Amino acid sequence: MTSSRRRTALLPLLLLLAAACAAPAAVQTPRTRVAGVAQAIEDHYFNADRGRAIADELRGAIDDGAFDALTTPQSLADALTARLKPQDRHFRVNVAQPGETMERRAPPPDMGTGIERVDILPGNIGVLGLRGFADFEFGRDDQPPRRAIDAALLRLAQTDAMVVDLRGNRGGSPAMVGYLASAFVAPGADTFNIFHSREGTQSEAPAQWHAAPRTQLPLYVVIDAGTGSAAESFAYTLQQAGRATVVGEASGGAANPGGPIVTGEGLVVFVPTGSPVNPFTHGNWEGVGVQPDVPVPAGEALDAALGLARAAAARH
């Protein structure tokens, strides 16, 4: 074949390739974006039947045109979050960042140790303030959050009562929840939540218990409406085990943990993939929050807890 004939034969293929390269990416609409969120929920929500029902409700709303006017991704994400929150407090939808194409988004940056206060106040009252439950791995000696919480507990080891302040604490790692709670309960006690997921069950009991638990220490946990997720789990676990008095306002009511999933249509949906079951209540705090034993406005809750701690320490 001559070179001119080869060029003629290749011309249609070259034109097709050029057209393919010039073709625009698929245009996303509110309907396709919501459909992606619905599919992520159906595929990953911890209760398969419930996940399918939530997804089908969204698909019905798509057919009714409920989202058609929400033409910007942010307005759509906000509307979906508001619609899904009553179904599960952990649901939220955000706009995906450029290049965010993995099905599961990378975890957020570490919160450090999560500890913001370790004090011994008059009356020999210990105060431990946590802004988050930082993650660590058991069996490693180089984990800063584990070292930090051990150091905090050692400093407070001779106090006559303790207050753990979780106001505004949005949660974090189940490993820290289990380990810190084990500092106040008998080793091996049937105290911890069991998380149920599509893959099976997992206990929040720590892989390694605290070496010197103080099982008789008067303990008070301060919460407010900003206390969420793992922080609620800590408060609820010790409250239901009879090991802590909870002071403050009802917490946020987000019991079911999970993770963010990038839908592929420009949105990221946080889907709850597990649900805790407490050994005492056989339920959890989803939707209702941890209810304080001593209801006090958030701004007064720490002082109230300290007063209770001092009275308990005087009797101790």
Would you tell me the structural class of the helices and strands?
alpha/beta
**CATH classification, class level of the domain at 115-256 and 274-315:** Alpha Beta
Would you give the CATH topology of the domain at 115-256 and 274-315?
2-enoyl-CoA Hydratase, Chain A, domain 1
CATH superfamily of the domain at 115-256 and 274-315: 2-enoyl-CoA Hydratase, Chain A, domain 1
Unreliable stretches covering 5 or more consecutive residues:
1-24, 102-109
In a nutshell, what does this entry contain?
Helices cover 35% and strands 17% of the residues. The protein is an alpha/beta fold and 316 residues long. It has a domain at 115-256 and 274-315: 2-enoyl-CoA Hydratase, Chain A, domain 1 (Alpha-Beta Complex).
Q: How are the elements arranged and paired?
A:
Elements: H1 3-22, H2 30-44, H3 48-63, H4 73-84, E1 92-95, E2 115-121, E3 125-130, H5 144-155, E4 161-165, H6 174-181, E5 194-197, E6 200-203, E7 219-223, H7 230-240, E8 245-248, E9 258-262, E10 267-272, E11 275-277, E12 294-295, H8 298-315
Helix pairs in contact: 2-3, 6-7
